[in-house]
Design a protein that fits this description.
13% strand; binds glutamine; Amidase signature (AS) enzymes; eleven-stranded mixed β-sheet
Amino acid sequence: MSDLNKLTLSEARDGLRKGDYTSVELTEACLTAIEGAGALNAFVHNTPEIAFEQAKAADARIAAGDAPAMCGLPIGIKDLFATKGVPTQAASAILEGFKPEYESTITTKLFDAGSVMLGKLNMDEFAMGSSNETSTYGNAVSPWRRGNEDTALTPGGSSGGSAAAVSADLCLAATGTDTGGSIRQPAAFTGIVGIKPTYGRCSRWGVVAFASSLDQAGPMTKSVRDAAIMLETMCGHDMKDSTSADLPVPNFEALLTGDIKGKKIGIPKEYRLDNMPEEIAKLWDEGAEKLKAAGAEIVEISLPHTKYALPTYYVIAPAEASSNLARYDGVRYGHRATLAEGEGINEMYEKTRAEGFGHEVQRRVMVGTYVLSAGFYDAYYNKARKVRTLIKKDFEDVFAAGVDAILTPATPSPAFGLGEVSEADPIQMYLNDVFTVTVNLAGLPGISVPAGLSSTGLPMGLQLIGKPWEEGDLLNIAHSLEAASGFVSKPEKWW
Ligand code: GLN
């Protein structure tokens, strides 16, 4: 059977069980697709030997009737996850040559469940960015094109390699991470599904830290059903992460009933931006109509502190990053600068960090150090923490009033051209996160679902925000929106 790489996780799982093909065949199909897709720069370290070994083991498990849902399914892993013996660079030059001695909890869970690792995926350096352009490997490229133009478009960021790989069918699914939108924005830009679970659902152990109070991992998949299947394998309590929640993990797939009758969906009025493109506003309105037609009740809600979310995020995230990134000092990991005669430890730190970190990372470290400095700590960092509490309370109030989920656009525009925003001032890039950062600040689950095409033929996504720990309910509402939207478009192959 050809085109096995085009299958969804659920299709491939069912086919494997019926004996229609083997995991080795699925793996071969994906590796061939990866080989032919160098122009997308999505995979940055391929691991075919590991993949075949895992695929053979998975085939044996399936034959023995001992196969969890993810068994035998080939996936890609974002370069932010520590993978034992396999380069893990967080797309940074400072981690050049770093091969962890350990496996992250999430990849351990995926591999224990029989998943097959095809390789590591491109991303923004240390997950800082919205376009994949801060990567030391060079940017990943979206498989999508704007109309008949051949302008190279961004797959979004920071999980841009994951998004490009899944939407171009180089793998069946991929891991992503989301600190301010890095799963949901690239998913929206490339017509796939991405869910950031509740903070504490997925272990952060072995995931290179960006901003620890915001970082969460999640799946990036071709359907909501696939997101449910993969999320279940990824989450669960982990003693090695003190912020990991000790809660049972539901069978998310079993909760996809498609029945959303009586669910109350909130439409936050503050998300209707003045300069919102007409087609995004229309997509949002139509999404609400579709949920209504499926039996949900649509209510207008207010999240009054939304306008402070971006500035709050861009104080808290850099503050935590400046602290987390202090460990890259040329002593413990990766790159170390060559010193001139007479230079000592201070020059070694300075030169190593100047050479190893890219500009955006340096900017974040400087902003973070500034807002945490004694003279400015109260004015910026502490103020931001207080505003964060208010943003969280906005959501708590709305949920307490009976709202089950909130519908918003996922991004303020469809994908832009590479260079189009990165060459403007950094604030333009930060504005990409306007609909997603609130969710990280409040620790809530959020999912992006492809919902339509722009006038230029690019995917556009809608975001659903759920109650804490209610990923099952959120996935079910997303499943209903997905069915009503009937999004089936794929990028036309040019690579
Ligand atoms: N684009 C945001 C940033 O640059 C979010 C990144 C992320 O979620 N990792 O910080």
